[in-house]
């Protein structure tokens, strides 16, 4: 769970189900060793490698993508940023400060230039100017109504 009490809804529900089913109390490990205590890192790595091999095509399994469990954290934070979640929220959910988040992940944000340009160009279109075809219908309609009023 995050500091604001929110988390990935499906994951939170799944973990809460495990906690309720096993009647776990605060401080009890969800995935302990057989005799109690924390699982060794080697156990996580071995299980992770088997899971990757079971679900990934061979070329992806042999690639560095998701090679370590920790890579999932990077993938998650990058996905949130690429989907337009504000950096302050991503930092909070990821347990980072905004400066650390941006210094690490800003270069990973991709695929937003066209949408950002539309956001800028649409409201700032000059009367009588034609917007690039990349501007969506909603933005073009707003621009067209401005053009009509300007005439």
Automatic annotation (TrEMBL):
Q: Which SUPFAM superfamilies match?
A: DNA breaking-rejoining enzymes
Which positions carry the signal peptide feature in this UniProt record? none
User: Could you tell me which residues belong to the region Disordered?
Assistant: 124-151
UniProt key word NAD: no
One function term, GO molecular function aspect = DNA binding
Q: Which GO terms describe its biological process?
A: DNA integration; DNA recombination
Q: Has UniProt tagged this entry with the keyword Magnesium?
A: no
Regions annotated as coiled coil: none
For this UniProt record, give its keywords in alphabetical order, as a comma-separated list: DNA recombination
- What InterPro entries does the annotation carry? DNA_brk_join_enz, Integrase-like_cat_sf
Query: Could you tell me what this protein is called?
Result: Tyr recombinase domain-containing protein
Q: Which organism is it from?
A: Streptomyces filamentosus
Q: What does the organism's lineage look like at the top?
A: Bacteria, Bacillati, Actinomycetota, Actinomycetes, Kitasatosporales
């Amino acid at each position: 769970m995050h500091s604001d009490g929110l988390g990935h809804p499906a994951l939170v529900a799944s973990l809460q189900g495990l906690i309720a089913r096993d009647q776990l109390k605060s401080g009890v490990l969800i995935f302990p060793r057989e005799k109690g205590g924390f699982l060794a890192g080697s156990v996580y790595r071995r299980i992770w490698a088997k899971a990757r091999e079971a679900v990934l095509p061979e070329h992806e399994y042999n690639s560095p993508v998701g090679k370590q469990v920790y890579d999932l954290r990077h993938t998650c934070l990058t996905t949130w940023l690429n989907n337009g979640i504000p950096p302050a929220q991503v930092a909070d959910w990821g347990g980072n400060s905004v400066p650390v988040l941006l210094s690490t992940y800003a270069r990973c944000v991709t695929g937003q230039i066209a949408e950002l340009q539309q956001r800028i160009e649409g409201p700032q279109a000059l009367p009588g100017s034609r917007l690039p075809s990349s501007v969506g219908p909603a933005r073009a309609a707003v621009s067209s109504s401005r053009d009509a009023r300007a005439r």
